[in-house]
Amino acid sequence: MRFTQLDRIIELTEGESLKAIKCLSLSEEYLHDHFPRFPVMPGVLMLEALFQASMWLVRHTEDFQHSMVVLRETRNIKFGDFVEPGNQLQVQTNLKKLEGREAVLQVKALIGDQAAVSGRLLLERYNLVDRKLAPIDIDNFVRHKFRKQFNLLCGPRFESTGELDVPSRLAEINTV
After folding, report:
1. List 34, 60, 66, 144, catalytic entry
2. pLDDT tens digits, 11-32
């Protein structure tokens, strides 16, 4: 990820939900062009923040099993309020379904109690080796880098231990 759109993961319920924050500062590089006299966070970057929060929830739920977690589809995206420098964007994501290679999440981002953006995201997850795109070493390296970044975003209280019982947890999520 070139631009991290989350400053901190503040709450995580494994396999269920994640809350994170993004404090928008006037020093954000993209605000100089979008728009010079009325700087606001571009809608595509609000979506990126929603995706990143959703990706972290999926990665942590599966104990970083997959090197790739990508956005496949957005559904019912509704933009509400502008996000201006000085605002704190509160990003929330709820896991609705985790089946096969797909994950469906209900997402929203708020400024205070006003919705800035909401909708559904469909994510796809896989390993490069499974698609014969790279050797297993690359998958291991990518997973390691994402685990390190996750630990920076939320600190040691959510660190993955590798003791997650993924098959039973996935069955539990999919019966909801």
Report:
1. 34
2. 999 999 999 999 999 888 888 8
